[in-house]
Design goal:
The chain has 2 domains: 2-246 and 329-374, no CATH class; 257-324 and 384-417, no CATH class. Helices cover 33% and strands 25% of the residues. It contains 11 helices and 19 strands. The relative contact order is 0.15.
Amino acid sequence: MSWGGGTATPNTVILPLQAAVSLFESAGSRCCLISLDLATVPNHTADRLKAGLSERVGLDPASIFLNASHTHTGPGFADILTPSLDDGYEHELIENLVAAVLALVPKLADARLSTGAAPTIGLNRNRRRRDDPVDTRLRMLRVDDSQGRLRAVLWHFAAHPLTYHGPEPVWCSDYPGAVAQALAQSFPGAHTQFLQGAAGDVYPLDWYYGLDAPSRPVSQDTMLYMGKRLAAVISQHIDACRPCSTDDVRAMTCGVDLRTRTIPWSIEDLQTRIAVLEAEIARRGAAQWLPGDHVTNRAKRHPLPYSLYAARCARRCIERAGQTVRVQVSGLRLGDCILVGFPGEPFSNVSLELPLAAPGTNVFVLGYTNGYVYYLPNKRDLDEVHSWTLDEFLSQENRWAYGATSSAFWSGESCEAAKAAARTLVESLATGE
């Protein structure tokens, strides 16, 4: 097992944006895990990077996992309705990552895998339905060399990286970068790598939509606090990881057709509302980040741009009525771990349900993997907002519904089909069938 990575350095950097790479091989089968401090891995970027790794490294595209941390202070949202990266940035990113993986091939060495999961308290919460459960576990894959020395820790957790989100135009890897900093002190010389989970409806700490005065602001101190808390969990539990019973490395994918959701209002009504909102925003000017503003309350305090975005999302669904997009749900067996990746933002219930399909293994449910198609909410949420009036749909008093209103483009049946495909992959990778 070996690794490599790189750092982007824009004008103002709070914590560096990094890429971390792990390459595994067993019985002639290889897989590659690439973690990126990006808001998203756009679909065309994922396709081009996989093609480059397949052509120049010889990796099976199915065995490549590209996981974005979803930091909101990183590249990946050049246009909020069309995730993309600057062409020059994308080209350099792909070239650097292919070179990093190529450099790892001759460095592959005997390794022993162990895995485990640890509880966390107060570090993530359902931001939409604040009393609904989320997966609070932090999962780990430990890599030791043949002498028993720690070489790498891959860790998985689900929470939006928004602890440093705010008015400043900065680059920041948010709490995953803070964890990396802390772990570098605890495990000098060891590689650490973050894998983002099913965080579509999960905030960090005890935050949720509608919380007007959170105990902690969005700030550098809050980011470092969360990073230290998560790093402490890893440090306390890494030695309890159990050795894997198999060296299996096996990858599978399952294609799913996502159909555009049905919107119950006319495009004329939406166009009228969009024009009114645009005019009012132009009259008032852009909303400033004011004292007391927070990711939990900003939409309610400054609703116009958020209502406008919801209306534009609904209009896009009408414009693309009946259209489908083919996506791949990805699965990987790595020792006693099973990784299943969605190219979007699955909700937290998926993290609670899928591990039940493979007892005896450690199931890592990843979002933001190998592409980005926005939210993959639960059918019940889409059905609920479908009965609303347009005013209710656009009102930021109903901000809790975000993920079923804004940025949700697919039918409930399609989202359920994606989850069913993931379950099939987990079962197949667990049983070998």
